[in-house]
Amino acid sequence: MDLLIPDKVHDESRQGEALLLEPVVGKNNGRKLYIESYGCAMNFSDSEIVASILADSGFETTSDFNNADVVFINTCSIRENAEVRVRNRLKEFAGAKSKNPGMVVGVLGCMAERLKAKFLEEEKLVDVVVGPDAYRDLPNLIEQVDGGQRAVNVLLSREETYADISPVRLNSNGINAFVSIMRGCDNMCSFCVVPFTRGRERSRDAVSIVAECTDLFNQGYREVTLLGQNVDSYKWSGQLADSSEQLAVGDEVKIVNFANLLEMVALVNPDLRVRFSTSHPKDITDEVLYTIAKYDNICNYIHLPVQSGNSRVLELMNRTYDRDWYINRIDAIRRIIPECAISTDMITGFCTETDEEHNDSVSMMDYVKYDFAYMFKYSERPGTLAAKRYADDIPEVVKQARLAEIVAKQQQYSFYRMQARLGRVEKVLIEGFSKKSNNDYCGRSDQNAMVIFPVTEGYKPGQYANVLVERTTSATLIGRIV
Ligand code: 5AD
Ligand code: SF4
Predict the structure, then answer these.
(1) Coiled-coil annotation: which residues (predicted)?
(2) Less Cβ crowding at N or C end of the chain, within 10 Å?
(3) Residue 374 CA: which ligand is closest?
């Protein structure tokens, strides 16, 4: 699930968030929706699609589930603890429902897809179970529940990309937005439940992606993050003439790959920053790297999950590359985009992993010196290839010790990368006030580092500022506008 972006994506440790939307004027049906999202950026982006579909049926939102007529939880199945968290949250919703029996409680997303109707047996107070490809059916399903039934739609689709739905931006700062460019995954990494919960890979119409990005820019947004489980295998064919004149030649049908799409989005406006997640080591091409290098507004930051530094373990994981291939891709990034920040995902204690093999993961960290890493203990997921084929045989204490080792290592390298920015001037997109003080702004550098600096006259959120880095922590650059 190569889909991480620092602090937004696949961080199921975050509390779910209440997402707010405005009702569509004139269509208000007098009912209130509360929606909470867990897991990856794709889920947060999907909740914006759900919000849009329900706003069309007249739902207004509330940030207090006790007041809601419909309570949805958009769930993640990636690791067991993600599911545990959702079940605990459902217990809290059950309390509210017992006081308000008309309340509709729904489970959306990956857990819905994984457990299907079983969810209704296991969690007696859930009324609706809806998988990631069935959100258009939500108004119907709610009606069924209103009529006294319980409702399930977990059909996966080979076509659904919600391309025509204009997401209602939730919890938005009006500056950064996620834009989903594909759905599903065909990779079948042996540890991963995503191919089962999100179905086959399909790419969204490039014209609708560029139109959405253009629209976002016109509304004042200054950064888009293109989302997919494996963006490098994006592929769409069709006519481009209307939406991207710079690239199109007449009305002929074009094949658009990820490099082409990046370029089309970069051309929307030089002031629109373009980020993307997630790249797959087996698919990331030099063409993509050259495109990143060519456009200043495509950020120099690549999330390239390695998962393990050992070739035997990578084979068991069915990642379809080995250590040398991954190193070759890292070397290509360093050669073509010397300033590029790189982050990763790493799993410790995968089935049969020995101490020596774990050491290969550690030495990979020494080789790449990642700017950032998401690190996990292996968590066996029912139905995956690994669960069927291999014993989950690494003791919890060993998984934990290996995890602690790589976490400590990463902290050193994050600090090292931050220190390397000292004395440099970073172009920062101002996102708002810093969490700690309204006297400071925060924003991200091109390389995706969080930067904090004093509020300065003449600068507002949504604008770019050149910030001289004067101090750092292992997670933040601190400086002043120059
Ligand atoms: N156990 C632990 N980590 C996992 N991931 C995916 N599946 C599992 C699992 N079963 C991690 C991978 C992936 C990230 C999003 O979550 O590192 O890239
Ligand atoms: Fe990512 Fe592999 Fe899971 Fe696909 S199967 S979502 S590539 S980890």
Answers:
(1) none
(2) C
(3) 1
- What is the set of domains in the chain, with CATH numbers? 14-153 (3.40.50.12160), 176-419 (3.80.30.20), 425-481 (2.40.50.140)
Beta-sheet pairing, 60-61 with 32-37: parallel
Mean pLDDT, the chain, as a whole number? 92
Spatial separation of the C-alpha atoms in residues 157 and 160, rounded to whole Å: 6
Query: What residues line ligand 1, using a CB cutoff of 6 Å?
Result: 1-4, 10, 78-79, 191-192, 305, 307, 345, 347, 376, 378-379, 381
SS3 at position 396: helix
Please list, in sequence order, all residues whose beta carbon lies within 8 angstroms of the beta carbon of residue 384, skipping any fewer than 6 positions away.
190, 191, 192, 193, 196
Q: How far is the CA of 190 from the centre of ligand 2 (A)?
A: 9
pTM value > 0.90: yes
Ligand nearest to the CA of 305: 1
Neighbours of 150 (CB within 10 A): 16
Rounded to an integer, what distance in angstroms lies between the CA atom of residue 25 and that of residue 58? 8
Average pLDDT over residues 351-370: 98
